């Protein structure tokens, strides 16, 4: 289904007021402490919430979120303008892999695959481990550091822009500036133009991608960009928009995912010293521990979709014209899937967590993200026996996109 088929928002019938919750889905209170919300939502039917004057539906149970992510004839990924999602339009309507339904989704997703082939991931693993060691030595000398801005963030710039994209360092600021400007989109009133700072950063990356396509067509190179163009541009069909979308998604998604996930994981472990001690006593638990960290501290609280066909989910009616938010974070607290879900237990070995999506919408970079997160957390936890929070009573502020739980800082000590 294309955006043009439903360019006018359908009329939504009157909704049952008893099914509304008075909650700010993207507010600091929910971001900072989602567990009380998620434990309740994960055992309840879908509910309605108001977002910028629009009635949205929130789906939170594990099986129901999985159903919603694969039932495209009822809940579509294709954007519908005017339905109340302006605050999520981070790339000016350019094609994103999450904005397509099958079968078109598969074609767009294949544009990203060259970045995550087993050979490419294996190629950069030693590079990642070397970078982590180098940063660890630097923070050991400083004694105190912010994990977000001085460790995980800078590491991901180097991993993605230098290791995956193989760009020269002088090019990195073009992408970093756009990444930093993305959250400005959510500050704009519906229908208003995007901020000048955002547009300047957006246009710089877009223009760079246009020049890059032409350069690589004339002088091919065996790197990620060259691989994407060679694999999908035999007839000159790949557009600037598609290459731009592929590069920006690879970078911004990877940067945010690993930086936030690793920072949240270290924060969670330090706030549960019994679990940290258990992990240090048995390093073989690292993979299970990280899956449990990603379950209980999911980076993406929500993923939005568009209801295109009337349906009833667990007694809650949904109608065309409504935005549906699949709460990946709440689904990870479903007691039918994860008993006693609010308990942090690194021996749990949780399966089928929805942190990276599900089915055709599973993040293609999840293997790389897990590998880098494991390298970061393992190096800090096992390399610094006195690792601790520099200010244990700090209130952690969560920034990033409206749907994210991205800590703005996690201050640590290693002396």
From TrEMBL:
Which named protein is this?
Cytochrome P450
* Short name of any one Pfam family annotated for the protein: p450
The record's family statement is:
Belongs to the cytochrome P450 family.
Cited InterPro entries: Cyt_P450, Cyt_P450_B, Cyt_P450_CS, Cyt_P450_sf
For this protein, the record's SUPFAM superfamilies field holds: Cytochrome P450 (SSF48264)
Q: Answer whether the UniProt record assigns the keyword Ligase to this protein.
A: no
Recorded GO molecular functions are: heme binding; iron ion binding; monooxygenase activity; oxidoreductase activity, acting on paired donors, with incorporation or reduction of molecular oxygen
Question: Could you tell me which PROSITE patterns the record lists for this protein?
Answer: CYTOCHROME_P450
Keywords, in A-Z order? Heme, Iron, Metal-binding, Monooxygenase, Oxidoreductase
Q: Which Gene3D superfamilies match?
A: Cytochrome P450
Top-level taxonomy: Bacteria, Pseudomonadati, Pseudomonadota, Alphaproteobacteria, Sphingomonadales
Do the record's keywords include Oxidoreductase? yes
């Amino acid at each position: 289904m294309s955006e043009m088929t439903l360019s006018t928002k359908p009329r939504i019938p009157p909704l049952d007021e008893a099914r509304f919750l008075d909650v700010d889905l993207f507010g600091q209170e929910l971001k900072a402490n989602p567990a009380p919300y998620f434990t309740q939502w994960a055992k309840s039917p879908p509910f309605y919430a108001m977002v910028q004057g629009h009635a949205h539906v929130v789906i939170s149970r594990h099986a129901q979120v999985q159903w919603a992510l694969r039932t495209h004839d009822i809940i579509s990924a294709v954007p519908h303008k005017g339905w109340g999602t302006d605050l999520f339009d981070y790339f000016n309507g350019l094609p994103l892999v999450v904005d397509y339904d099958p079968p078109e989704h598969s074609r767009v997703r294949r544009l990203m695959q060259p970045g995550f082939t087993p050979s490419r991931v294996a190629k950069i693993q030693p590079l990642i481990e070397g970078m982590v060691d180098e940063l660890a030595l630097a923070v050991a000398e400083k004694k105190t550091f912010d994990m977000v801005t001085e460790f995980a963030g800078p590491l991901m710039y180097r991993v993605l822009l230098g290791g995956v994209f193989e760009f020269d360092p002088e090019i990195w600021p073009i992408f970093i500036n756009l990444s930093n400007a993305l959250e400005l989109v959510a500050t704009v009133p519906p229908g208003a133009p995007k901020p000048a700072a955002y547009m300047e950063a957006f246009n710089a990356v877009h223009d760079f991608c246009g020049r890059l396509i032409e350069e690589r067509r004339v002088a091919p190179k065996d790197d990620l960009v060259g691989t994407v163009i060679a694999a999908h541009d035999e007839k000159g069909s790949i557009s600037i928009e598609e290459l731009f979308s592929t590069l920006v998604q690879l970078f911004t998604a990877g940067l945010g995912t690993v930086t936030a996930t690793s920072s949240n994981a270290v924060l969670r472990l330090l706030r549960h010293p019994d679990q940290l001690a258990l992990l240090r006593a048995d390093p073989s638990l690292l993979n299970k521990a990280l899956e449990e960290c990603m379950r209980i501290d999911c980076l993406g609280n929500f993923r939005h979709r568009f209801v295109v066909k009337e349906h009833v989910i667990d007694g809650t009616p949904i109608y065309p014209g409504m935005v549906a938010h699949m709460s990946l974070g709440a689904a990870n607290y479903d007691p039918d899937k994860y008993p006693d879900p609010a308990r942090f237990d690194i021996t749990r070995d949780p399966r089928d967590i929805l942190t990276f999506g599900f089915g055709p919408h599973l993040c293609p970079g999840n293997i790389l993200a897990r590998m880098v997160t494991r390298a970061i957390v393992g190096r800090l936890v096992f390399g610094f026996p006195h690792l601790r929070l520099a200010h244990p009573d700090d209130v952690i502020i969560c920034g990033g996109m409206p749907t994210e739980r991205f800590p703005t800082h996690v201050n640590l000590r290693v002396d």
